[in-house]
Design goal:
Layout (H helix, E strand, L loop, with lengths): L3 E5 L2 E3 L4 E9 L2 E7 L3 H5 L4 E4 L4 E4 L1 E6 L4 E2 L2 E2 L4 H10 L2 E9 L6 H12 L6 E7 L5 H13 L3 E5 L10 H14 L2 E5 L3 H13 L6 H6 L2 H18 L3 E3 L5 H12 L4 E5 L1 H5 L2 H4 L21 H10 L4 E2 L32 H10 L5 H15 L17 E11 L18 E11 L2 E4 L24
Parallel strand pairs: 1-5, 2-6, 7-10, 10-11, 11-12, 12-13, 13-14, 14-15, 15-16
Antiparallel strand pairs: 1-3, 2-3, 3-4, 6-17, 8-9, 17-18, 18-19
Helix pairs in contact: 4-5, 5-8, 8-9
């Protein structure tokens, strides 16, 4: 049976336009847009009408970097696909792309099937997967081709974490060569893990065990060096490259230099690098452990370079790298040894709001907000125009956003399954009011009306950002 929803009176904002328009939704997709008061808009009837007067009507956010239930450091990320996707919806995100993990010595298919099983029937919003390559060999290289055909079109490699996820330059080159031929996109965690391990060992031997030393040993120069090396390997392979969670000014400079040469090199940063700093890692007692993630938080002066990169499009995407661990019982595993603190921050619920605050603070425009949070991640990872925009034929993933509502971010009111907020007490302006996922209300006027299992697995095309 056909269902129709009409959103009236709002300001529709996409990466390309801002238009005062009514939006007609039919059978889970955007059917039409028409100017307020125009004869087409006045002729529309619907089963459900949403009054968006004075509000923004924006595409649902696409968070292309999450880690639900990720095993790390002897524990697991505290958000399940159920709790994590519900929290994402509260924050105006309607699609996540999570990372399936290949265990060393095992097939990619085995890891992917495990992630399908974790997510199946659990998600409140739509989801896709990237594949983490932990073991590059002839078998896994052949499997990459099969995964691309199946809609898993991006593969993450690590220059960090020796003994866990680490790949050497030869393995990275071979994976990049394969992606050059099959259309996949290599995502790179760019930090020199071999050198970092030396600095970790030296710091611990000297008694420097507090959380702040996590940031000191993971030097900005070692992020920049790895970023440079990844770019050169991608050039040799003739492959596009996407560098995840860029945090350091020197790494942005490497990406900018490559892009100035016309190379297909792309960068992502995250809200924690835009809004937090080493001051948080240095909080007294063991509080700094809450802010341990990799790449690490940098001194606040790096933030200007990240904002500049977002404005100049040398950085294209803001994702969260949402990987929450509770302070009690999980982050505490690293008391007395910062290297044992599980790496990761919660943030899937906060991204859209923090970036709206960045609009008010003058860092980015409203359309750029939608571009870096919705349209560009959708294009980068083969989901556009199904996701990331409001246009006829697109999925009706729509957020009614109140740009004037004020809120204070707090663990007491957030919906992520974690016992602290990285942004505790921060006052911001702008808040999600209603969220539709494929036309179905998931958040209705600040009440959760969705359900586990509404979200469906979404296969992806290859990168649409080239050219």
């Amino acid at each position: 049976m056909s269902t129709r929803t009409l959103i009236r009176g709002g300001l529709v904002i996409t990466a390309a336009d801002e238009t005062h328009a009514d939006v007609l939704i039919e059978d889970g997709r955007i059917a039409a847009l028409a100017a307020h008061g125009s004869s087409p808009a006045q002729s529309w009837t619907a089963d459900r009408t949403i009054d968006a007067t004075g509000k923004y009507v924006i595409p649902g956010g696409v968070d292309a970097h999450t880690h639900m239930e990720l095993p790390f450091g002897g524990t697991f990320a505290s958000d399940t696909f159920e709790s994590g996707t519900r929290a994402a919806a509260w924050g105006g995100t309607t699609t996540i792309v999570d990372f399936a993990v290949q265990s060393p010595g095992h097939a990619l298919r085995e890891g992917l099937d495990a992630w399908y099983a974790k997510a199946d029937g659990q998600c409140a919003i739509d989801y896709g997967f990237h594949m983490i390559l932990s073991d590059v060999n002839e078998h896994s290289l052949k499997e990459m081709d099969l995964l691309v055909e199946e809609g898993i079109t991006s593969f993450k490699l690590f220059m960090a974490y020796p003994g866990v996820f680490y790949s050497d330059d030869g393995q990275i080159l071979r994976a990049m060569q394969r992606s050059a031929s099959n259309g996949g996109l290599i995502m790179m965690h760019a930090e020199n893990g071999i050198a970092i391990d030396v600095l970790v060992e030296q710091a611990l031997a000297a008694g420097r065990t507090d959380p702040r030393y996590h940031g000191e040993v993971r030097r900005a120069l070692l992020e920049a060096e790895a970023t440079h090396r990844a770019i050169q390997l991608a050039r040799v392979a003739g492959a596009p490259l996407y560098v995840v969670h860029v945090s350091a000014q020197e790494a942005v400079e490497e990406l900018t230099a490559a892009r100035d040469k016309g190379l297909p090199v792309f960068g992502e940063t995250c809200p924690q690098y835009l809004f937090l700093s080493t001051d948080n890692l240095a909080e007294p007692g063991f509080e700094g452990a809450k802010y341990v993630c990799s790449t690490p938080l940098r001194p606040a002066e790096h933030q200007a370079a990240l904002w500049r990169g977002l404005r100049s499009n040398d950085l294209q995407v803001v994702s969260t790298d949402h990987c929450p661990f509770c302070f009690v019982g999980q982050k505490e595993l690293g008391r007395g040894d910062f290297s044992k603190i599980p790496n990761g921050l919660p943030g899937v619920e906060n991204r859209m709001d923090l970036l709206h605050q960045a609009v008010l603070d003058g860092h980015i425009s409203r359309r750029r907000w939608i571009e870096i949070a919705c349209a560009s991640p959708a294009r980068m990872f083969g989901l556009y125009p199904k996701k990331g925009t409001i246009a006829p034929g697109a999925d009706a993933d729509v957020v009614i956003y109140d740009p004037h509502a004020e809120q204070t971010i707090s663990a007491e009111t957030h919906h992520m399954n974690v016992d602290y907020s990285a942004y505790e007490g921060r006052r911001i302006t702008g808040r999600v009011e209603t969220v539709l996922s494929r036309g179905e209300p998931v958040i209705t006027e600040r009440e959760f009306t969705g359900r586990s299992g509404h979200g469906i697995y979404t296969p992806r095309a290859t990168i649409q950002y080239l050219g």
